[in-house]
Structure formats: C-alpha cells, structure tokens
Amino acid sequence: MTTTSPRGRTEMLRPDGSPVRVLVVDDEAPLSELLSMALRYEGWEVRSAADGAAAVRTVRGFRPDAVVLDVMLPDMDGLAVLGRLRREVPDVPVLFLTARDAVEDRIAGLTAGGDDYVTKPFSLEEVVARLRGLIRRSGTATVRGESLLAVGDLTLDEDSHEVTRGGESIHLTATEFELLRYLMRNPRRVLSKAQILDRVWSYDFGGQANVVELYISYLRRKLDAGRPPMIHTRRGAGYLIKPGE
User: Fold this and answer.
1) d(CA 152, CA 139)
2) What are phi and psi of 41, to 5 degrees?
3) Which of 158, 123, 150 is nearest to 38 (CA)?
4) Does the reported pTM lie above 0.85?
C-alpha cells in the first residue's frame, strides 16, 4: 500500500508496509524532541533515549531501521554505545551527531562503524535527508515516491545530494544545498528572509538576515552564471525560484 506524507511525498516504508523506525539517542531533551518531531513528520515511527543504557534497552524491542546517535552521552561514549548496538542489530545504519568538528573525531566515528556524521549545529532537513539516504542504501526500506526535485532545467536529488542544471553537475556546500532545496520545494513562491532562516539554518542559529543574502548570492553564482536567471528577488518580500526564461 502506498501512502502520502504531510509534505505530499510518498513515504519510505518497510517491506511489510509499516513505517520506518528510527531511534534518536541524545541527552539534550529540546534537540531530541525537535529531531523526533521532524522524523515523525516524515511519517516514521520514532523512539528516543537519553543515554547509552536506555538506547541498548530500547533497540532490543524496537528493532530500528536507523539510529541517530550523539557521540557525547552522560553514561558512556557514543562509540561504546555503537558497539553495543551493533551486537543487537548488526546492520542498522547509524548517523552520528556531535559538536566536535575535528577531522580526527570524524574518522574515529566512521572507523568505529558509523555510517555518516553530522556536526552540530545542523539543519533538521539535512538530518532527514542523510537518514533517507542511509536507509535506502541499507535495503531495509524503499522509497515509494520521488526524491528528485525539478524546476525548469534544474534538478536536485534529495537522497544523493546531486544537483544539475542543463545536465551539468553543480557542486554545492551543505548549506547551499539546503537553501536550494527549500526554494525548489516552493517553486514560484516568494519566501521571506525570516522563513528561509527558520527552515534552512539550525533551530538555535542566531544569525541575521544578511546571511540569507550572502548564500543567495553564492547560489546565483553557481546556478545562474551564463544562463537565464532562476533565482529572483522581490524587493521587501523575499526570494523565489522559477524556470529561466
């Protein structure tokens, strides 16, 4: 059976047709609640745990299809938790969350068996996209919908993070990608700077509206150079994307 998510996209489902299951392990209650809310919005079943011991107990009965795991937990290191989780569910994809951004920490997490790594602060939509990609590649669930967004000759794959215009590949940073995705999910709709800040940047980002102007200029440089412009400014209102003319 195919069902539709609140966004209008068909859901990612398990082989038996039930919702994807995700375990969120983080001791920061506000962040855990925000992540859980974003994942439930995708139509997924979500459980949360505030420490490593609770995570191991939960995974035994819940049998998640993916785990979001904070590296810094109150009772044990996230890498130690990962080892215990792997004994219960050996092939479950694990996405690490951490405030650390050193290359050594990234390597340690991936070497220990983590499948991907997101550094705080992050966009909730980026976490969702990373999880969709991990779950899809693991083969434990299938996407009964389309991950490709298209506006004119511009395409964006939400799972692979590939962007092309007129068949030419365009490399974007993570933030540029999130901004473009938000614009492309709302084609021909004017989005205010406040809306963009709220949706693209992290929940606790204290930035100013000029950061939106800056990243819009980055996108224009990469997408519109030598081509009919697609990103337009509506003075005093915001920005929109529409096919180049």
Assistant:
1) 32
2) -65, -25
3) 123
4) no
